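Recall that a protein's primary structure is simply its ordered list of amino acids. Everything else, from secondary elements to tertiary packing, is in principle encoded there. The following example makes that idea concrete.
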Amino acid sequence: MNKKLLQDGKSQVKSRIAAMKSELINHRFLFLLLSVFLSTAGLKAQESIQVGSTARQMIVYAPTGIKQNRPLVISMHGMNQTMYDQKSQTQFQSVAQANNFVLVFPQSNGSQWQLWGTGDTDFILAIIDEMYKRYGIDRDRVYLSGFSMGGMMTYYAATMIADKIAAFAPVSGYLMSGPNANSSRPIPIIHVHGMDDGYVTYSNVQSHIDAWVARNGCPTPPVVTNPYPAVYTAKSIKKYYGHGKEGVEVVFIGVAGVGHWYSDNNWSADGVFTSQEIWNFCKKYSLKDGVPEFKYASVTDKNPKQIQVVLTKSVVASSFYTGFSVKIDGNAAFIDSVVVCDTNKVTVNLSQGILKENTVTLSYSNGNVVSTSLGKKMLNVTDKWVDNQLKGASPQIMEASTNVNGNALLMKFNKKMQIPADVSGVALNAQYNGPISIPVQQCSFFNNDSTTLSFSLGNQVYRDYTLSLAYSGSNILAADDGLLKAISNSPVTNYSNGLPVHVNSGRIGTDGITLSLDFSKAMALTSAQSGYFTLALNGKNVTSSGYSVINNTIQLTLSKCVHYGDSLKVSYTPKGIVAADNGLLDGFSN
């Protein structure tokens, strides 16, 4: 960014602090009321995360039982606000709950976001990494949003880390130094702004929208919906620009009757629920949109000199694709040609034939394969296994896993198998506070599927165990008599339920209505199950009116307030409450 523009922008931002403070203070009491209410109604946790040498703060929300490969939304607060304010005013948790995505509200250092350098963009990247470790989020579906100065930070991040964020959603904020659409790629943007905003003025938004429309190559003029939504009489307006380069869109929503504020689900006059609008727009986008990826490759008896490569997208036809390389038993093989076979398939023609004994791998690096839809380049891959389907070739294990009950080891193969009479060569190794013996017993086809062998286990395994597979290289044959090669310490995916979970302690919050129960594992809980706990206040049963789950802690909102000197006892008779790994909760009393 130009240094002078940066300095001008910083000075303009600071000049607005005094004006913005008065409006923010007027809303502070509302923020606090909302924060108290929501703190007892959602899944949340204030946490620290290390970014370089600095400990940064954030609130994390993840719906109970969320699966892997779900999106992440990061929502940033305004100047002189906090992550609690942003959580309260956006009402984003209800959207995350309904649509099953992870939500993070980060906290700035001090009162402002850093619209220069990499201090806060590094924070955003650290959040993405942490949520991937914790929840296995889909890193290609990360969406960034922010209100006021958080919106400014959203625009700044678009110029810095566009390769990490799939879509951007600024609200009531733009760069004070002027439009800057210098991103590494075309990016989808939705901007929502109050039409009566006198602090970050509404009249200046269009110049920023125009810059991104030009950068993205979106068609003009826009498609205008006025009023928006069409069923409302308010004068909110939506401008739609799309599709541009790589299929991206730009949307600008001006909200009637709203000043420097976030239009929420209770704003009935305009009909615009900003968080829902953001999700509806962002959810369409992934960093992998239109990108061809390697999916599968095989060689068959039909032509041992040909490798058929299947891709995830249709690709532009070429007389000779570049970028491919092949290894046979670790040695480079000479490629005669690579040509299109079908819309999403290419054929690699080799000078030499592949034998049943061979192990074959395929790589692709910076070639000329591009998608037909958006013209995006194929992702590079290195040493991808080629399925050797020649008669008598060694079978390959596609996945080794346990069943949910933990009493069977399943092996999924790339071809039809024989049932081995002798399973002594198969060993399942388990670790949990030391090694555990897991005898492998007889074998059968799983659900009559001859490509999957099921080995019954002498002892039950649990999700808490770390499992690996070893095989001596004898007795397991494919239907075409290909012998499975020896295996040493290959990881096994553990789908079994966890060990039982137990309660550790309980405590009442300073508000007198929040009961926190701490357990030995991360927990999962449904609304119906929150009533399975028996609560006795001074000997009389009371109920809970809400709940939340924060890692190992279940918080219950009591229907009556607990005062100093009161006696509160909690009991639970096993009724199916489980940990996040499906381990059953043990009963407890008093």
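DSSP finds eight helices and 36 strands in the chain. The two ends are 62 Å apart (CA to CA).
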